Amino acid sequence: MNLAALTRSWPSLAAWGAGLVQLGLGGGMVTRGVDVASRGVGLVLATVGATALVWGIIALARGRLVAPGVAMAIALLGTLSAGVALFVDPVRVSVHAVAVAVALWLALGVASAVLLRRRSRRSSADDAQARPSGPAPAAGVAGIIVGALAVAILVTPALSAAEAGSYVDDSGNPIVVPGHGH
Helix or strand or coil: residue 116? Predict the structure, then answer.
């Protein structure tokens, strides 16, 4: 099995995982934020998360890492905004969720940097010869399954640790918060 075909989808999946965690963190800060700063950071987190999801969809649809410079920028902005969120509201922002998001951003950033480095070392003729001649469907599907499992194992607990996940019980029904008359 070709390792490149197996791992081709992983940057997209890392972007989805990090984007989902960013959306969870941002949603918690926007809805439960106590001040303008935390709500503003929450809005940035949610925007970066949504951007990562869109980029991941485009990259997975094309079957390759697209716009690696943009992906690196998203990863950098995601890492910085997660760190700022932890600084602005350390009581409500989960360290676990931030750590998972940063790890996934790092994976996306490194994959993008490696691709940019390879492109800068090759001429356009060499790049055309180095591309695989055809898709490897079995390796691609196996890679997506393995990558999705890895991201799910990381992201699920991180989302439950985010502020937005702390107000939902296991059945998906909102928990009545005491003192709010509901």
Answer: helix
Q: Are 102 and 82 in contact (CB under 8 A)?
A: yes
Closest CA to 6 of 123, 149, 146, 127: 146
Give residue-wise pLDDT tens across range 118-173. Answer: 877 775 545 445 454 444 455 466 666 666 667 776 676 666 666 655 555 555 55
Q: Identify the CA nearest to 73 among candidates 135, 134, 116, 29.
A: 116
Delimit the domains of the chain by residue range. 3-119+139-167
Per-residue DSSP letter, 167: G
CA–CA distance, 169 with 18 (Å, rounded to integer): 23
pTM of the model: 0.72
Tell me how far CA of residue 177 lies from CA of 23, 45, 166, 168, 174, in angstroms: 22, 25, 11, 10, 9
The span from the CA of 112 to the CA of 107, in Å, is: 9
Distance CA 44, CA 84 (A): 10
Sole residue written with tokens 């991941």: 56
Please give the structure tokens belonging to residue 64: 């390759």
Do the beta carbons of residue 95 and residue 86 sit within 8 Å?
yes
User: What whole-number distance in Å separates Cα of residue 40 and Cα of residue 128?
Assistant: 44
Count CB-CB contacts under 10 A for residue 132: 12
The C-alpha angle 139, 136, 128, rounded to 5 degrees, equals 125
